[in-house]
Write a structure and sequence with these properties.
18% strand; 22 helices; alpha/beta
Length: 650
Amino acid sequence: MTSEGWGTPPVEPISQHYIVCGGNALAHRLVLELVEHYDVPVVVLVADRTRDHAPQIEQITGVAAVVEYPNLTEEALRAVSIDTARGLALVEGSDQDNIHAALSAQCHNPDIRTVFRMFNQRLGENIERLLRNGAALSGSATAAPAFAAAALGRPNSVEIDGRYLHIAFDDAITPDQICVVADHIDRQDLSKIRLLPEQEGDSAQFVRLAREFGDDGPVRPGGLRRSPASEPAPAAYPEAEGEVEVAAGSEFESGAEPEAEPDAEEASGGTAALQALRMKPREPISWVRRLRWRVLDTMRFLASARLRVVLLTALAAVLMAFAVLWYLNRDFGWTVYVSLLDLAGAAQPDQQADIAAGTGTGGVWQRVAQVVITICGITFAPVATAIAVEVLGSGRRGLPRNPSAGTRDHVIVVGLGNVGTRVATQLHGMGVPVVCLERDPQARGIAAVRALGIPVVLGDGPFEEQLRRARLKHSRAVIALSGDDATNLEAALEARHGNPDVRVVVRLFDDDFAGHFYRTLDNAASRSVSYLAAPAFAAALMGSEVRGTLSVFRHVLLIAELTVEDGSGLIGLNRHDLEDPGGVRVIAARFARSSHLQWGFADRTRRLAPGDRIVVAATRSGLARLNTVLVEEGDGERVTADRQQPTGNS
């Protein structure tokens, strides 16, 4: 496009287009998703063409126009031809602004598909009921599970009908895998990754054997061996799970296997596969460790070593005096009663007349014990009062508590924006100790984590000091989730310097930056919020329901559920039609006549009918291909968008 589009309505009338409102990272990724994978006209509405990602969005080939308006008003919506648009994505601004814009768009165009970003998911679900064709998504909620799982060093999972789908790597892959997600993974060069190899028929292995041996290479029972020229059958093609029996003759004599040159990518990489678990994976934390954390955490009020010694000495004296009273009276209930009264200062001392008459309550040792308990009670009372006042005062002032000396095996979350708050909340719900670190005392996430009792380190000092206060030495992982790549990298490097064994997870937008990060650090992971969330927003804009995203290093695998509706281009397609172009694997199906979800549906000829639902694992381009299937009215001929093969960066 040219500069004429800046700040003005599109130069030429446009219709059947998609509008993206926002100039942030998510808007940038979403525009790329729509232009590259869906091949649809996109108009972008930004508040300032010189800020954030607006200059990069302007450079994207295929963007129809970029319009600048300071506020998302009805005038701005009319400027981007809201009346003739097919879809509207609101991915920037507050929840209130997005709700107002979504309702305004529906008034101008009742049939428009609206997808809007909402941090408050409960409110978003209620707003969806007010819209005829709308969906509320949370980018932070979509990306948070991937960050939490990466910090714990275990796979992220997506629940589908009681099963939890996750990505397994190399030795963790089991024989009951659903499908291969990627092969030839090279950690040093993430562009070499290949997601979802093309589906081949059941005879693919035999075709490769015929090509390898030719007419003079008879195949007969002999030594068990897999063809070196083929890809691993169980990994790439689940239908061919047995070893291929090759003749013990010609050049493949039993025990005389030829030495093949190892593939460079295989030598430096591995394989990833999609698998299902019967139950949700949880972080195994024993009750003993939890109890220890709780006990040590109560010591946070006793910050002074001198005060700790005084209180422990007083407690020991009370216990000894209690034992003396019990020994003298042999009545446990009465001893407890008298001890509590003495601690509260309400004991009735013996009078001289009572002692002379022999009616006193006990001997000398009992009186000594009661005096000791009373004096110690004087020590306990003001300390307990000070603790109660401090706790209540901190709560009223809205101040988060600092991490205690008993904090162990915790995860440090750096940055309490939308994503940081989601990640901290999710880890806390899993029973994992969390400590948050935030430089801005006005960050919106502070109140949310304070309500959960999560400690927060506040201040704008150097990361080294803040991480020390967050007890980096005793932590298991550090997640850097601020909105700036350089800040996140700085936090990660400081964390690794302070604790060489800590696991580091960094939020990075730039792919080149992430590549250098992987090559430099071990026991580290990089994720991009916009990269994880943009495919889900794009699919929702096209009417699909993305159930979750799974990460394969910096790449994304989408788990989506598609409904076959009347007039849909999916009607009449079978599994072969869906999978053959590549980038899509059907993992389950629910037919209209049955409510039961069938896993591993093997019938490749059964055609889809209205009311059927299918669950697919797909790359970004693969899901885009399914979403752009159309039906040409008139002669009923099915036409599809360009069925682009998935690339290495899918």
